[in-house]
Amino acid sequence: QVHLVESGGGLVQPGGSLTLSCAASGSILSIGAMGWYRQAPGKQRELVALIRSGGSTNYADPMKGRFTISADNAKGTVRLQMNRLKPEDTAVYYCNADILDRFESRYRGYWGQGTQVTVSS
């Protein structure tokens, strides 16, 4: 089995910073792309940032210049540095990774349980 566990969420004032971390564990043979998504109340889950195994990244437009994603595929970790946070960044943030389980024959997407980020004064 494969598990993703997020940490680092919390309450922060507008303009502040938070760093989210995610660690993958279990019967992992290889990790491909890793990313962060978020879901605000009453809204669909949306992409925040993605990093591929080669290091290339993609960010949703509202996060460009404020958020930075980094990963260590060998360690199975991905981080999201969030700066200049806004109230509209309030959401549950989910870690996602494409992982090849050593007992399976193809990569599958796995999700963490989510961590709450609240931006409020």
Molecular structure report:
This protein is an all-beta fold and 121 residues long. It has strands at 2-7, 10-12, 18-26, 28-39, 46-51, 57-59, 67-72, 77-82, 91-101, 108-111, 115-119.
Q: What's the SSE blueprint?
A:
Layout: E1 2-7, E2 10-12, E3 18-26, E4 28-39, E5 46-51, E6 57-59, E7 67-72, E8 77-82, E9 91-101, E10 108-111, E11 115-119
Parallel strand pairs: 2-11
Antiparallel strand pairs: 1-3, 3-8, 4-5, 4-9, 5-6, 7-8, 9-10, 9-11
Shape verdict: elongated
Distance between the termini: 40 Å
The average pLDDT is 96
How many helices? The count is 0
Care to count the β-strands?
A: 11
Task: Write down the Rg.
Answer: 14 Å
User: What proportion strand?
Assistant: over 45%
Low-pLDDT runs of 5+ residues are none
Content-based structural category: mainly beta
Instruction: Please write the string of helix (H) and strand (E) elements.
Output: EEEEEEEEEEE
Main sheet record: 7 strands, mixed
Share in helix: under 10%
* Multimeric state: single chain
Spell out the key features of this protein:
121 residues; mainly beta; 4-stranded antiparallel beta sheet; 11 strands
Task: Please sum up the structure shown.
The chain has strands at 2-7, 10-12, 18-26, 28-39, 46-51, 57-59, 67-72, 77-82, 91-101, 108-111, 115-119. The strands form two sheets. Strands 2, 4, 5, 6, 9, 10 and 11 form a seven-stranded mixed β-sheet that branches. With 121 residues, the chain is mainly β.
